[in-house]
Amino acid sequence: MTQDKRTALDLTRLSRFPDVEDPTLLPYDATDELLVAEALTRIVEQELTGTDIVVVGERHGAITLSLVAAGLTGLRVVQDRLVHERALDANAERIGIDPTVYVHAPAAAETFTGARLILWQLPRAVDSVTRMVSLMGVVDDDAVLVAGGRVKHLSRGMNAPLEAGFGSVTPQLAKRKSRLLVVDRNAELHLEPVVPSRKDVRVAGRDLTLIGIGEAFGGAALDPGTRLMLESLSDVDIRFGSDPTIVDLGCGNGTVAAWAAQRWPQAKVIATDDSADAVASAAATLEATLGNGPSSAVGHGVARVQVIRADAGDAIPDASADLVLLNPPFHQGGTVHTGIGVKLIEAAARMMKHGGTLVTVFNTPVGHRPRLQRIVGPTEQLGRDRTFTVTLSTRR
Q1: Mean pLDDT of 112-123
Q2: Which of 316, 313, 312, 321 has the alpha carbon at shortest distance from 359?
């Protein structure tokens, strides 16, 4: 390919929809722009067509759609969050790009087969970097990995798995508080598949085995807010009708779902998250804790359990849940923001039956209680420590 591919997309045309939208939150950042600029140079130097490019950690489409606008097709795109997949597709439609010219691909070794250029918005956790690098051993011998992130979120520890599993790392000069790492492939290097983290815990009278995979919130750790919520909830008498449904909304590693499945064995428990890694983690936690995999009807006197990847539980029918358990995030990327919490509170209200119960834990300074009162219904405090508040709301 000899033609010049330096045409770039106007990123201001992009939107975050259906992700949380706010004038203070942009659908791209300086790292996206640096990755695109680097890619537009390398597709000429390496004579790339698009089928040999993998984009990892794409958010709202800035990288992928810029390369498609430059004439490339067949890119493989790895996104952990469902809302990011949908935002990419929505932006493609908005600017008139056929979404079939790129492929949504899983975080799996086969996704990287034959790749010659990998563009990666790095996650914050070193373990997540290690896991992804362990999948890249099938790239071409002349492959180049260009990874980047905000300087404040990069750490020297991230270089170790890149150097051990891919090749030598050349950091680039920081620009606009972002930095790129260029890694040239050494075909003699590879990492063994990463074993998911695992931790046995006891919380609020129940023994759980937590499994953490990839970017699942908290890995295999017991989140302190979750602990307070379950301890506050353990002695509360919640009355159900026949065949009740409990939803762990934003389930992360499945701690709450696994605890609820033991606490209320007569109920159907649904764990849901928009993160593919969280869904995989929750399924593994439920299997490890309950002794059998999540399905529509798990036996041995344990709750029926189900794990669903959905955006804010949008796969769960309206007015179907008797109890929703919620530990909402309080940030968007690196920005403290209440938007995702409000989105999940509204989702909980939608899926709750009249008279149903929502138990929420949140960082006290976030102050969700007035929102819970307004969106869901009467709200009381169940517990509080120096950091978190636990509330119980009744659907009006």
Answers
A1: 97
A2: 321
Q: 């979120």: which residue's tokens?
A: 153
Q: Residue 361: name the closest of 260, 257, 254, 229 by CA.
A: 229
Q: What pLDDT was estimated at residue 123?
A: 95
Q: Is the pLDDT of residue 291 over 90?
A: no
Q: Is the peptide bond before 161 cis (omega within 30 degrees of 0)?
A: no
3-class secondary structure, 297? coil
Q: What is the DSSP string of 119-176?
A: EEE--S-HHHHHHHHTTGGGS-TT-EEEEEEEGGG--GGGHHHHHHHT--EEEPPPBT
Work out the percent of the chain whose per-residue pLDDT is above 90.
88
The CA dihedral of 383, 389, 394, 396, to the nearest 10 degrees, is: 150
> Which residue type is seen at 66?
S
Q: What are phi and psi of 150, to 5 degrees?
A: -70, 135
> Is the sign of the CA dihedral 150, 155, 161, 166 positive or negative?
positive
Q: Give the whole-angstrom CA distance, residue 298 versus residue 295.
A: 6
User: Does residue 333 register a pLDDT over 90?
Assistant: no
The pTM is what?
0.93
CA distance 66 to 373: 43
| 88 neighbors 67 (Cβ within 8 angstroms) | no
The secondary structure of residue 253, as a DSSP letter, is T
Contacts of 391 (CB under 8 A, 6+ apart): 359, 360, 361, 362, 368, 369, 372, 379, 380, 381, 382
Specify the 3-state DSSP secondary structure of 29: coil
Contact 246, 264 (CB under 8 A): yes
The half-sphere exposure of 292 on its side-chain side, counting CA atoms within 13 A, is 12
Helix (H) or strand (E) holding 214: none
> Could you give the dihedral angle defined by the CA atoms of residues 75, 81, 83 and 88, in that order, rounded to the nearest 10 degrees?
-10
Per-residue pLDDT of 237-264, as tens digits, reads: 998 988 999 999 999 999 999 999 999 9
Element containing residue 256 per DSSP (H, E): helix 255-263
